[in-house]
Each structure stands twice: as structure tokens, then as C-alpha cells.
Amino acid sequence: MSPALAMTGVSKSFDGFPALTDAGITAYPGEIHALLGENGAGKSTLMNVACGLYRPDAGEVRVRGERVSIDGPKAAKRLGIGMVHQHYRLVKAFNALENILLARGASRYGRGLREVEAAARRTCDALGFTLPLDRPVGLLSVAEQQRVEILKVLVEGARILVLDEPSAVLTDREAAQMLDTMRRLADEGCAVILVTHKLGEVKRYADRVTVMRGGRVVASADPDAVSLSELTSLVVGAEVHHARVPARRIGAPLLRFAALTGARADGLRVLNDATFVVRAGEIYGIAGVGGNGQTELAEILMGVRRPLSGSIELDGAGDLCAEGVRGRGAGLAAIPADRAGYALAGSLSIADNYAAGAVLSGRFGGWFRLDRRAIRSATEAAMAAFDVQGARSPNQRAGLLSGGNAQKLVVAREFADPPRAVLAHSPSRGLDVRAASAVHARLRAARDAGAAILLISEDLDEVLLLSDRIGVMSRGRIVAEFDTPAKRNAVGAAMVHHA
Amino acid sequence: MDAPSETAPQPARDGAAAARAIPPAHPSRRRLGRLSVGVRQHASARLQGAVLAGGLLTGLACAAAILVAAGIGPADLVQEFVVAIVTSPESAAAVLVQGAPLAIVGLAAALAFRVRFWNIGIEGQMIAGAIAATVVALHDIGPPALRLPLMLAAAALGGSAWILGPVLLRLRIGLNEIISTLLLNYVAFNALLHLLYGPWRDPENNFPNSQLYEPSEQLAELGWQNLTWALPLAGVLLLGGWWLLSISRFGFLTRIAEANPRMGEAQGLPMTRVILAATLASGALAGIAGFMICAGAEHRLTQSFASGYGFSGILIAFLARNSAPGVLAVALFVGTLFVAGQSLQVFYQIPASAVQLLQAVIVLCVAASDFFIRHRLRWLR
Questions:
Q1: What is the pLDDT of residues A448-458, one digit of tens each?
Q2: Where is region (Disordered) located (chain B) (predicted)?
Q3: How large is the greatest C-alpha to C-alpha distance in chain A, in angstroms?
Q4: Distance between B10 CA and the closest CA of chain A, angstroms
């Protein structure tokens, strides 16, 4: 039997950074094929090549034995490849049928809608989906929206289904239902590719697993033939040796998270009773697979989101979650993961972005008059001290800085005053090695000056390298804590086994 | 050429955009025949000024062409729009009288737009302010010497009260302020009609407007032409607006609220309070503009005193790029258009709507010139 989809030797790089190197996957009709790997391992990139969203720099793609060139999503659709993306592509104001019609690109609304409805009802009956087809999808639950996405690719006639992290946003029961549906589709002759980082799912549902790490395929195996710990080592790789610099003097607890519970904007509870402390003079690293509550934890600490319950006590400042208390005034510094969203205003100048941190302190003039010259000279000094390059003057728009220099600007602003507590959320994401190590050095310096540092990162290497203590976050709570140096496999296992 | 940071493909996230971005080597460029259009990353202040001036000149040329096509000679145009305004004191004074309330509504719009609050309800706030001032006048609240300041304060309060609902709804539940402020215009206007056709109808002649204000309730004349204290009041408010937007710390905070309020929140800056303060000030200024027209020109509350000012304010703030000196310049310019338009109506039988047409043409040209600030064009040989 020829494979439904066979990709071999696929390479793809972005701006010289290789995202895929000689990668590939072979999926047969009738199987659920898991594509396993950490964040950034290249799983999504490989699948985006299959769906025509990216063109590979090199490599071969065969569909049902025939060599094809997939030069766009339409070509992928014609070949029967359908992808359910991690972030759904649905028009919230449209109902399910209209969304399907939109994806199909039918020109005649009325007739097209009738055709789509007939096909959608057939598919729903066949799969046992209960789904209100006539409600705006914005009013549906996340699981129902996912069903609309699945329905969409099936009505389009897909026989090769790619699901990118389909269970990330689902409850366990919903995930089990979804995976049962995939099993049924596979039994009917579809090839299902499940992009995931959950080992449990792989063991339970997949017929075959391909493991990726660092843009390469490291193994392709029968999941029943490999143990969980073997899979874990395949996913996280061998221990990488970097020079760790342990903390010099760890003091008393400074930042206490007590039973913190929080929900996303859409109401999904993602933070469940998170409890831990960060002591003065240590870096507490939170490891975990993305989407397990880390973002919400960071947002609550920064004061841009309110928790449902629980508290964050900063020694001497009280509960940071209480009305009217702002961590910023009490010596909290933050390097957010979403740089464009929370850290910088791209349309304002570098100087304005720098001044935003201390504008209320009076250093740049009082309420009556803002001292632009003081801002300019302080910014120039900070740009020199923190090696912010690529700008002719502080009056240039911050949005023109490259990722690394923008991050250095953020660090320069946040560390302008010695902080007492620091939140560093994926601080080296998208940075080259030099910029990343510069940021790491600043974090260590702040730690050694006695600050309590909370590092949240999906990059396990970064957590292992920097942390003095590691907490693993899963399903919104700290499920395990490790003293360092910690065994990479042990931390990795805690990350994925609880997921 | 372009900074690499913005042209780099974002892996995975936005599939549709990525798909489009793949085939050409430079996704930020497009070709139209021999013209190549690229995104401009950075425009210097001088270039921006030049492009704006170019847009303005184009708009003026189009406007002149329309008037010439309507049968007014080019020489007459220069006479009406330039010579008459500069040489005749009556016309110059008329421009200033027109310009004062225009500048205030322009400033009101600029303050709200500065925090990304699209205040379409300036006319409603003017009406609310004028009604509040008229309450003070009709009921003789306070000693006569303090009557005008009291009316001013009442107008400011009335105007901000009228915007309070929309801004609270927007901040609390995200209700779109464009809809709420627009609809409150009609509420205010119907309330005004109710008062003027009901309890406040002028008892002397039974016309549907309020009684004439007493002299102590009218803005006094300055003694040159028909200028009143409305003009210095507008000057003081513009000065205050300039300080608020360009000098003070508050002005800096409004720019963060405009550019990225989420970043402001994360920095611990009181974004909600800044937005609230700027919008309430916007409403207060609109209310004061209503008071200025009633107490300075009409000397009573009339049905249509606010008509047209709301959209003029939006337009002035837009052309002035939300800056107080810009508001002053554009308000005088729009005032000139009004005054010259009136004489065109009288002497050349040009319909009143032609003035609005001219305004619209000029605004469109200036708005379109923005394209050249954001993009760069090149001829391909």
C-alpha cells in the first residue's frame, strides 16, 4: 500500500535560521500518526509545508505515491490534505455552514449553502457529532469550534487530516471524544496526523509516532514498542552542558503565590490553585508545556489580569492582586513574553518607551512638565549601557528595532532601578545566542543583588541553565519541584506525564 | 532597505498571511505596471510635513477647480478667500468669531482621539452643556457677577456628564463608543426640542427658543467689530490644551494610551484613569463650546446652535493630527471656508452645501496623502 503522504528530505529556513533540516514523515491510510516534539521542534512548520502554507527550500512531497508540488493551501485542498490549526480559522459571526462555505470558496451563496448543509449533516451523522450548525461559531464552546474545523476539512473532501495540538484547549473528556472520532476516521481509510507533545495521547491513540527535535526527525517508531521514558528522552534529547552559575546567597521567601486561580478571557480556567514561593537571591524557573497557565500567571503578576482567587504577596508590598496595589511601584520588574503586546509600543519612540517605566517616579519631571531632555539623555545612557543597537537616535520608532535589540531595550528599562522581584517570561525567545546570553547575564546579576526572580520558559534548556530551583507547571498548577542541578529527563517526564 | 524585523515571516502563527507572503521575494512590495509600491518604515518629520502640505495644496486646487467650474472666476476666488479676509476687518472678525467654537470642538475631539476614544457625540455634549448653562441663566442661580463663570462650569459639567455613560460602558463592558456617543446625540437633540417646545418656550413671542439671556449672562463684546470674550476664552483653552497634550506628564500618558494601552497597564500606568480623564475633558470642552455659542452669539438657547459642529470638530482634530497648535490653524482655516462660503452664497448663488463639498474634498485629499507617508513609490525603468 502506498503511503497517503510521504515527505522526505524537507528543509526550510527563516532568515537563515533553519526550522527544518532534512525532515520528513510517512503516513499511511488507516493510521493515526503522531508527530511528537517540544515547542519549536519544527512539527508545525513541517505540517505547514504539507498544507501549502510554507514552501520548502528542499525536499520531496508525495501524495498517494505521486510526486506533487504544493504551492498553496488550495493545492493542498485539491490533494485532499486538510489541516485543523491550533488557532482556529473561523469567522466568529458566521455559523458553521457559512464558515464551511467560505472555506470552500463557493460563489453562489444560496445553492452553495444547501450543498454544504447536506454534506455537513451527512458527516455529522456519520461521526455522531452533535453540533448546532446554525449558531454563530463565536457562541460555541472551544470543543464545538474544533468540531466545526474538523467538519470543514471533511466536507472539503480531505483524506489526509492534520491536527495541530488538537487537545491543548480541550478537557480530558473532550479530548478523548475528539481522538475517538479520529480513530473512526482512520478506520474509514483516512490518514490522521496528530501534532502533539502529550506522550499519553501518543501511547493511547497513535499507531505510529515520529519524533522531532531541533528541526530534525530523531525517530519514527511504533509507540507500543517504546517505553514512556524512552519517548521522553527522544523528545527532550540528551543533556546539554552549559556553564551553570548557581546562586550565591539565597535568602527568605520574597514572592509568595498562594492558591492562585485564574481564567482566560473566554472563561476557560487555566490556572488552578498554583502555590509556590520565590526566595530572595534565587531564580525560580517554571518549566512546562505551553498553554498550561504560564501566560495567565505572568499576566496576573504584571497586573493586567485579575485572578479568580488567591494572592501574590510581595514582601513589604502586600497582595499584588488587591485593588489599587501595583507591583511596579513596589520594585517588580517584568520582561513579558509578548513583547509587542505588553512590553513596547512600536509606534512610539525608543525614548518614550524607555520613559514609560519611570514616568511616574518624577525622574523625568513632575506632573506639570515632562522633562524631554532628561528622558533623552537617560535613554541614550541606557542604550549605551545595555548595548541597544540599530537605532540612529532615541527618537526613532521602537518598532524598527530587531527582536534582540528590542529585548535589550526592555531589559534596560526594567533594570533601570535595581528590582526586588523580576518576572522573566521566555526572555530569550527569538533572540540569537549573544543577545540571549546578555539577557541571562542581567538576570543573574539581578539575582546576585538579592532579587527574587521568576523565570517562565517553554525552553527547557533555558530553565535548566538559569534556575536555582525548578517548578513544573501542568494544567495550571505546580506539579513537581526540583532542586538544581536537576535531571533533564526527570523534569521532562514531569512536564509531559501530567499533560 | 526595509528593516528585516517586519518582513520576516512569522512561523506557523498566521498561516493565511504567510501563504501570501511566500512567492515574491519582497512581500512588502507590490507592482502596479511600472510603479513599485513598498512599505515605508520610517518617515522623517520634514517628509511628513511636506506630504501633508502637498495633500492640502492638492485639496485646495481641487476645491478651486470645483468653484471655477461652478462659474466663479479665479480672480474672484482669490478676492473672496484671501484678499477679503486679510483686508476687510469685518471678514477677519467673522473668521475669528467662527473659528473660536470650531477650535474648541476641534480640541474636544483631539483630546478624545488621543486616547483612542472615538467621540462622535460632540453635538450631544454641546447641547447638554448649553442646557446646563441655560438652567443657570433662566433660574438666576448665583450673583450676577458670577453668573457667567457659573454658566461656564455648568456647561463643562453637562458636557462631561453626557460622555460619562459611553466612556464607563466602554471601559467596563467594551461597548463601542462610536455607537453610544452617536445615539446620545439624538437623545440630547430631542431633549432640547422638548424643552424649547415645552417649558422653555419664549413667553414673549412664543418662538421655540429660550428667553433672551440677561446682559450679565451674555459674553461681553471686546469693542472691536463683533468680537466677544468667546475669543480670549478659546485662546486660554487652546493654551491649556497645548500644555495638557504636549507639555504635561498627562500628555505623555495619553500617547501611551493611544499607542499601546496594554503596555501602559503592564508598566503600572493608570491607563483607565487617563482614558477617563481625557474623555471627560473632551465632553467638558464640547459643553463649553455650546455655552460659547449660546452666550456669545445667539444669546439664547436655540434649536440648531450645535448643528454641524460635531463633524467639524472631528474633521479639525483629524487634520490637526490631534495637536493643539494644529487645531488652532485648522479651525481658522475652516472658519475662513465658512465665511468665504457665505459670501459666495450671497454674491454668486453657490448653494450652502458647496461649502461642505469643499471641506470634504480637502479632507479627502489630506487623508489620502497619508498613503505617501506610509508607502514609498518608485518608477521602474
A1: 999 999 999 88
A2: 1-23
A3: 78
A4: 9
Share of chain A above pLDDT 90, in %: 53
Q: Residue A273 phi/psi, 5° resolution? A: 60, 40
Q: Give domain A253-497's CATH number out of 3.40.50.300, 3.50.50.60, 3.40.190.10, 3.40.50.970.
A: 3.40.50.300
CA A445 to mean position of chain CA atoms: 27
Comparing CB atoms, the residue among B41, B249, B268 nearest residue A329 is: B268
Amino acid at B193: L
Rounded to whole angstroms, the Cα distance separating A154 from A463 reads 41
Closest CB to A328 among B248, B263, B267: B267
Asked if A72 lies within 8 A of B19 by C-beta distance, the reply is: yes
Binned average pLDDT, 10 residues per bin, chain B of 381 residues: 37 37 41 71 78 90 89 83 83 92 97 97 98 96 94 98 97 95 97 96 92 93 89 97 96 96 93 97 98 95 93 91 94 88 83 81 87 80 63
Residues of B in contact with A365 (CB under 8 A): 249
Query: Exposed/middle/buried for A329, CB within 10 Å: 0-12, 13-18, 19+?
Result: exposed
Per the DSSP assignment, residues forming a β-bridge with B29 are B38
Q: A5-236 maps to which CATH number?
A: 3.40.50.300
**Mean confidence (pLDDT) of chain A:** 88
Class at the top of the CATH hierarchy for domain B73-349: mainly alpha
Q: How many CB pairs under 8 A join A and B?
A: 116
Provide the ipTM: 0.83
Domain with CATH 3.40.50.300 in chain A: 5-236, 253-497
Domain boundaries, chain B: 73-349
Ramachandran angles phi, psi of A357, nearest 5°: -70, -35
Contact A402 B42 (CB under 8 A): no
C-alpha A315 chain-centroid distance? 31
Contact: A326, B266; criterion CB under 8 Å: no
Does the beta-carbon distance from A370 to B41 stay under 8 Å?
no
- Cell numbers at A79, concatenated: 490533494
Beta bridge partners of A82: A161
Distance CA(B226)–CA(B97), nearest Å, equals 8
Residue A478 zone, left/alpha/beta (φ > 0; ψ -120 to 50; rest):
beta
| CA dist., res. B315 & res. B109, Å (int) | 9
Report pLDDT digits (tens) over A41-90: 888 889 999 999 888 999 999 999 999 999 888 899 999 999 998 778 89
pTM value surpassing 0.95: no
Buried b (16+ CB within 10 A) or exposed e, B87-100: eeeebbbbbbbbbb
| Chain B nearest CA to A362, separation (Å) | 10
Q: pLDDT tens digits, residue range A277-314?
A: 999 999 999 998 877 889 999 999 998 888 999 999 99
Instruction: Report which residue type is found at B36.
Output: S
Chain A CB contacts of B321 under 8 Å are none
Selecting from B41, B251, B268 the residue whose C-beta is nearest the C-beta of A303 gives: B268
Number of neighbours of residue B236 by Cβ within 10 angstroms: 10
The answer to whether B27 faces chain A, any CB pair under 8 Å, is: no
CA angle, A242 then A245 then A247, to 5°? 150
Residue from the list B5, B251, B269 with its beta carbon closest to the beta carbon of A402: B5
Among A48, A356, A288, A392, which Cα is nearest to B15's?
A48
